[in-house]
Amino acid sequence: MTMAFDHTQEPLVRVNHLSKYFPVGHRSQLKAVDDVSFEIYKGETVSLVGESGCGKSTTGRCLIRIYEPTSGEVYYEGKDITKLSKQEKKEFTNKVQMIFQNPYASLNPRMTVKEIVGEGLKLNKLPQDQVDERVEQLLETVGLNKDHMSRFPHEFSGGQRQRIGIARALSVDPEFIICDEPISALDVSIQAQILNMLNRLQKELGLTYLFIAHDLSVVKYLSDRVIVMYLGTVVETAETEELFSNPMHPYTKALLSAIPEADPERAKSSRRIPIKGEIPSPIDPAPCCRFAGRCDKCMEICRQSVPETKEVSPGHFVACHLM
Question: Rounded to whole angstroms, how far apart are CA atoms 319 and 310?
Fold first, then answer.
């Protein structure tokens, strides 16, 4: 789905040296996100991928101010989101929305669908009759109908609940949606339906997505650019086609080698690159390459210093001492 974007324009989202640390015990810190920088341009889908615990969701939550960053800046339309006026904060919360991973936990079980989807509309002081009409429209947009308005979340399947969550996110006419693993808790048969719907909504409504995922096959289908994270840091960034055809970082290569190959002949010739050991603790990590302990290409310098991020080809950035 790679498209051409004018990267000479001001990005919609700009993240500069973002870090989010959580105190653990008396003096230790869990470095969930550590010095992460990237940009997202209007109309594109940027995917943030990596193993569980790499800091993907924490990054997304910093972008929407569920978490306040420990350091660094997040700019939306050129404005630092931590320094917005009261009116600007209200505008920001309308423009930026999130679809959460677990449709079973993200919907209030005591509220009807009409109340859940209409909550943002009421906060924006929309009259009740218009709220009802808009909720009905939103449910139709996500493949549900007005008969569902009076029901409660427990009466729906996981896929239907996620559709309700998407309708809630769309209710305030956002420009930018953070999709935090929105299909990982759903049956495989439902996942494609939700992805197709997100794709359609992007085209119809001109949406921009940050799509957080661990499944690279999904990312290939949906993304314009991919950011690969490992243990709180960004190790590689590239346009989707470039990343899949020419991965440079050993971690990215290992992730891509694990994608199942449908073609039996290609499956025979493809080689799985195993990642040895377990992902290390993000608590007070050593000042070196975070992947050093699991990398089969590890050199002495990898254990001694953090690699710089280098642009190895136009738009393709890699943080690795091998470059």
Answer: 6
Instruction: Give 1-69 as a DSSP string.
Output: ------TTSPPSEEEEEEEEEEEETTTEEEEEEEEEEEEE-TT-EEEEE-STTSSHHHHHHHHTTSS--
Token pair for residue 67? Answer: 């978490």
What is the rounded CA–CA span in Å between residue 195 and residue 14? 25
Q: Structure pTM?
A: 0.91
User: Token digits for 267?
Assistant: 């499956």
d(CA 213, CA 173): 24
- Summarised one tens digit per residue, pLDDT across range 21-48 is 999 988 899 999 999 999 999 999 999 9
Q: One-letter amino acid identity for 245?
A: S
Give all domains of the chain, ordered by start, each with its CATH number: 13-109+165-319 (3.40.50.300)
Torsion angle of the four alpha carbons 260, 272, 254, 183, in this order, in degrees rounded to the nearest 10 = 20
